Amino acid sequence: MKTMFNKPTVPPQRHPAPGVRVRLTSLCAGYPGRPVLDQLTYDVRALGSTALVGPNGSGKSTLLGVLAGVIRPTSGEVVHGGELRPAFVPQRGAVGDELPLTVRQTVEMGRWGGLGVWRRPTRRDRAAVDEALDRLGVGALAGRQLGELSGGQRQRTLIAQGLAQESDLLLLDEPTTGLDPEARDRIGSLLADLAAEGVTVVQATHDLDTARSADACLLLRDGLLAGQGRPDEVLTDAALARVWQPA
To answer: Looking at the predicted structure, is the pLDDT value of residue 245 above 90?
Structure first.
């Protein structure tokens, strides 16, 4: 819930190698009294999509939080390339139905980080919101309350909020979970288009078909890196069996 309202701030310490959007080195992270990620080293490549795959509790959401800047590493290093800050799209269940927000107001929150407390939205801010609404096909729903939407409409609204930030790094936590096949395909096609246009897309997913359509895959188990590389190399039957077998 908190991440919906606060635009993450991750000032780059220095630029990683060309072609790398984020470099993780010996990363450890978690929560008070509960470590999650352990010695994770990985390069998130620019100009493509990366799928984070693993069972519940494997560290996918924690890793997204680290990439977004809302979870601080306990040790190790996170180095971002580029000047734009990441846009984080939480699971749709993290946003309460009771919030008295319209679709447009929800998407406008994506511009808050650059507005400051008293600044009024500029023409550019309004244009970015309009473009995001149209891109996600929710412009006609702009005046509807968030709680009135279907699951697919609601998820597209949250992605539009992230898109309105005009970031070069889009982070998504289970963006298609619980959606019907048509809604999943629509969101999948949109994310593929964004990656082709130069946005680095990183999404946590349980959907292996979605993961196999990504450019790269990170396989996690118990906060450890169990595999990395192309999906066809990482998501083998043997590797998936090892990761999902009972501890």
So the answer is: no
